[in-house]
Amino acid sequence: MQHKSSQQPWIGNRMVEMIFILSPPFVALLIVMLFPAEFKNSDTMPVAYWVVLIVMIDVAHVYSTLYRTYFNPNEFKRQHPLLIAIPVFCYIAGVLLYSWSGGIFWRALAYLAVFHFIRQQYGFMRLYSRKELHGKVIRIIDTVTIYTGTIYPLLYWHFAGTHHNFNWFVDGDFLLSKSQTALVTGRWVYIFVIVTYLVKEGWLIIKYRKFNLQKNLVVAGTYLSWYFGIIYYNGDMAFTTLNVISHGLPYMALIWLNEHKRYNTTKEQKTTLLRLTFSTYGGVICFAAIIILFSYIEEGLWDGLVWREHSGVFNIFSFLPAISTNILLALVVPFLALPQSTHYVLDGFIWKLRRKATLS
Fold first, then answer.
1. What is the pLDDT of residue 359?
2. pLDDT at residue 111 tops 90
3. For residues 55 and 295, is the Cβ–Cβ distance under 8 A?
């Protein structure tokens, strides 16, 4: 095996990355641990806290994808068939699924979201190990480790047979059962994978006298946020806090850092929006304001047309009629969910575009 002796694999700004990409799982867990009575088994969430987590982070991070795709004229020109086809496909598929069954629609969307969340952790691990030139065995161990950190908690969720005070989107969106065999087998595999990874890392430190801090923080953060969010705590606040903060903030930070670097290192067309957003670090305010505005509008439409749960937050949407007929719901719900479904599918493609130019 060879080892590449080089600088640590930062994306562009180590301080920003430490705060917004690598530390969120640990900060989220600290918040939960400091207030155990509020987080341990709760099935409710204060409205203000819901706004911060869902509107300002969870849904907002979905719209940050716009900066890498539809808001970027250069990328849209290069990839317009894909960028047009995916939302059309997602909407048609959503309408068909919801027409068949609303439960089937939410189940499909939930599992698509889970896959997206898992793949993000794998993507960050690969991003921060991109300068390593270790052999195939090391890469396989890393891959198995990051996937196990997410899949075992999901296995527990599916087969523990216990009541959970949280769900992914709606009640019943996961297929739940009870299997002690699956849990015991999964637990032993989980432990074995952790021990194997630790031995491997120890061996690399001894052999090369180097430690990939970023990659190991991604791995540790993944294990902590998924284990405590799903297995240890049984509360909606705990799950949402660990799930949303650990996923949404790093994604938004990656988008901004990547597009900021791209803006300042390429001669591509630069629109006014791109200049206001990525020319300086002050553009973060513009970046965040736009995606939070989109998020607020979307959640307002959801509340006015479907949920009717937070009228105090979205009172300007209270004039909208609540939809109750299945035909209209089959048309409206997939449309309102289109930003999410498009984000989940599109994200599997956009990070393969111009990788050398942006992540070298």
1. 52
2. yes
3. yes
Long-range contacts, 5-11 (Cβ 8 Å, 24+): 5/208, 5/210, 6/131, 7/131, 8/212, 8/213, 8/214, 9/127, 9/128, 9/129, 9/130, 9/131, 9/212, 9/214, 9/215, 10/214, 11/127, 11/254, 11/257, 11/258, 11/261, 11/359
Nearest to 278 by CA among 262, 290, 267: 262
Helix locations, the chain, DSSP H: 14-17, 24-34, 36-39, 47-50, 59-63, 73-100, 102-128, 136-159, 180-208, 213-226, 236-265, 272-278, 283-302, 326-336, 338-350, 355-359
CA angle, 180 then 183 then 188, to 5°? 125
Given a contact cutoff of 8 angstroms between Cβ atoms, the answer to whether 112 and 348 are in contact is: no
Residue 11: per-residue pLDDT: 86
How many angstroms separate the CA atoms of 215 and 145, rounded? Answer: 12
What are the pLDDT digits (tens) for 112-141? 999 999 999 999 999 999 888 788 999 999
H/E run at residue 351: none
Tokens of 95: 């309408």
For residue 186, give the nearest of 149, 146, 143 by alpha carbon.
149
Contact (CB, 8 A) for 14 and 128: no
DSSP-derived secondary structure for 49-115: HHIIIIIIIIHHHHHGGGGGTTT-HHHHHHHHHHHHHHHHHHHHHHHHHHHH-HHHHHHHHHHHHHH
Could you give the CA distance from residue 123 to residue 69 in angstroms, rounded to a whole number? 18
Mean pLDDT for 274-285 is: 93
How far apart are alpha carbons 310 and 314 in whole angstroms?
A: 6
For the chain, give every domain's residue range.
14-359
Q: Are 230 and 239 in contact (CB under 8 A)?
A: yes
Q: Are 251 and 171 in contact (CB under 8 A)?
A: no
Average pLDDT over residues 149-154: 98
pLDDT in tens, 257-270: 999 999 988 888 88
| Nearest Cα to Cα of residue 82 among 350, 354, 358 | 350
